[in-house]
Design brief:
The structure is a single chain. The chain is of the alpha/beta class. Helix 1 packs parallel to helix 2. The longest helix is centred in the middle third of the chain and has 18 residues. It starts with a strand and ends with a helix.
Length: about 230
């Protein structure tokens, strides 16, 4: 299966191309820089792999949740490339990719995936693996770290532990992980086989937060709440 995968939802850029039995990957700086570097990186990896865009079976991208700017970049690039090459897109939840990283690294099959949402909050979702693919258990949540809650025995995975580790409860283990293009490539075959590929115009982001900035008063109130006994 020939696949292009990329994620720009966090502070890291991750791109990979799989084809002819070989995978080519590159990581870089995400955020605002991803909008300038994503397409050149994609084209360079396709050239290394000896693949043209129309030869792809799908373009796989991290659809969210995550940085608004990053998600818009991923969706617009996926849509533009897919339209031009007449190939489908496969939107994949970034938190599912985090769960997949935990499975690859530690054999985890029950994962609470967590990504830093900034503004003193985290994105969270629980995933279980049935031996073939991941399934999300319940909705994707946006909450304060201490409000998330995790049953004993579940694996926590994500990029939140340095910022919020002392405010997270429960879990059996903690794994630092980001949604990577390599994880997207591993997830793609089962998702595509289950009919989750989409036409290019459906390359849409998964937004969980509607508001991206707090007012000065809201920031002050949040500081007071954190300082309260």
């Amino acid at each position: 299966m020939n696949l292009l995968a990329f994620d720009t939802s966090t502070e890291a850029l991750s791109v990979a191309v799989a084809g002819k039995g070989v995978t080519f990957a590159q990581a870089g700086e995400g955020g605002a820089k991803a909008s300038a570097t994503l397409i050149p990186t994609v084209l360079a990896l396709l050239q290394q792999a000896g693949l043209a865009l129309p030869a792809l079976d799908a373009i796989v991208f991290g659809s969210g949740p995550g940085s608004f700017t990053g998600l818009r970049t991923a969706c617009s690039v996926a849509q533009g490339l897919a339209l031009g090459a007449a190939v489908p897109v496969l939107p994949v939840e970034t938190l599912m990719a985090v769960a997949e990283e935990a499975r690859e690294r530690a054999g985890a099959h029950d994962v609470l995936a967590l990504l830093d949402a900034r503004m003193d909050e985290v994105y969270a979702a629980r995933y279980t693996h049935d031996g073939r693919r991941w399934h999300r258990e319940g909705p994707v949540r946006l909450a304060a770290p201490e409000a998330v809650g995790a049953p004993e025995g579940i694996v926590l995975a994500g990029n939140v532990f340095r910022a919020y580790g002392d405010r997270l409860a429960g879990g059996a283990a903690r794994i630092e992980a980001l949604p990577t293009a390599a994880a997207l490539l591993r997830l793609a075959p089962a998702l595509l086989a289950d009919g989750e590929g989409r036409p290019a115009e459906e390359a849409l982001p998964l937004y969980v937060r509607d508001k991206v900035a707090q007012t000065t008063a809201e920031r002050a109130a949040a500081r007071q709440d954190r300082m309260a006994p």
